[in-house]
Amino acid sequence: MWTVRLFRDDQLPSVFHEPFIKTGYRACETSLSECLRSALYGTNETLNFWTHFLPVFYYLWRIWRIGSEHDFINDPYMWPLLGVLICVCLYSLASSVAHLFSCLSERARHVCFFMDYSSIGMYSVACSIAYKCYSFPNNLIDTPYFNSYIQISVVNAVLMCTCGACASRFMDESLLRHLCRLSSFSLPFIICNVPIVYRVFACPGDDCDGTSVALLRWQYLAAAVTALIFATHFPERMAPGRFDVFFHSHQIFHVATTVSSNFHVDAMLADMSQRRDVLESTVGMPTFWNSIGLLSAVFCLNALLVLCFSVMIYSSPEPEHFYKIKHSEGTGKRQIAKNYRHRVECRNRAQQGSNVKR
Question: Over the stretch 143-189, which tens digit does the pLDDT of each residue have?
Fold first, then answer.
């Protein structure tokens, strides 16, 4: 009842492969119940799911805890922080759902990660709004860069995180696709953090006096580890097949992003309490339309873009995937025949009618 079919990478089409991960793959077409069961089974996606699903509850607890000390409803000054907390929950939930249900079908796999990418764009916009309200360097306030900062962040988040990353799923597996996807996440992060990096490391005026600076430095250290792990596929690159289920790079990547986001929230709380008087007189109080309202508008735009990309995916026929398996005697359970060659026959797009033979 609780069995989940597992395959090797040489039994699946390349679209389901992850670099240097050799075993523990689920089937190309999996039922909803089998997807749910796989959360408690030893697949190469199990910990990818849990390392982002559990943080959702942690951040929901943080929202409740901070909300018990501050007024999220009636105090506009709290709205940018609330936006960050909501978007952390959103990207963690979108990521965990994508990893759990990405094996429903090939087209569903693409749609799952479309939503994952767009949620990262939402988070980068929320960070920009919070940075502008709480953490911007004093000597950059009321400059042309300050006044266009949010607009630049929104454009980059939508074009890079949503459009760029989603479009990369239409590309063949290559270094170009990997670089395109990496830049889709890193460029919005860099753009949104330029003024904060300047404040943290250049220390203009008395901007380094706050306790948030140390927290922001820890955040950037965790972010650097996140980018390094994502780009290098360490440690499975060093020993392909050894880290298929536990401790491969994507799991470490998830943990590092959660740690980085937690430092970010702590830094926002420190800046809020220590810089409020100064920022209210210079930046002004946040409004609904430049905080929660703006995030809602970006969410709607991203949802529309995800819908468009999903229509493009579903306008093509679903490829059919066949697995050569055998039935074990006496039990009737389907098992993978490990002692002979397997063949995966894929009927790709309509114009490709021939089977792919191993």
Answer: 999 999 999 999 988 988 888 888 888 877 777 777 777 777 788 88
**Minimal CA–CA distance to 86: which of 111, 117, 64?**
64
Q: How far apart are CA 207 and CA 177, in angstroms?
A: 40
The conformation of residue 89, written as its DSSP 8-state character, comes to H
Query: What is the rounded CA–CA span in Å between residue 50 and residue 39?
Result: 8
Identify any residues that bridge with 320 across adjacent strands, giving them in sequence order: 347
DSSP state of 160: I
CA dihedral in degrees (217, 223, 229, 230; nearest 10)?
A: -160
Q: What is the pLDDT of residues 70-85, one digit of tens each?
A: 999 999 999 999 999 9
pTM of the model: 0.85
Torsion of CA 301, 305, 311, 313, to 10 degrees: -150
Does position 337 have pLDDT exceeding 50, yes or no?
no
Range list of H helices, the chain: 32-37, 46-69, 79-101, 106-130, 144-156, 165-168, 175-202, 212-232, 249-282, 292-314
The answer to whether 295 touches 83, Cβ cutoff 8 Å, is yes
Both tokens assigned to 29: 């077409």
Of the candidates 89, 63, 80, 167, the residue with the CA atom closest to the CA atom of residue 125: 80
Name the phi and psi angles at 323, rounded to 5: -120, 135
**DSSP letters spanning 53-81:** HHHHHHHHHHHHHHHHHS-TTT-GGGHHH
Give residue 348's pLDDT band: very low, low, confident or very high (50, 70, 90).
Answer: very low
162/167 Cα distance (integer angstroms): 8
Q: What is the C-alpha separation between 180 and 114, in angstroms, rounded?
A: 15
Domains present along the chain, CATH in parentheses: 9-314 (1.20.1070)
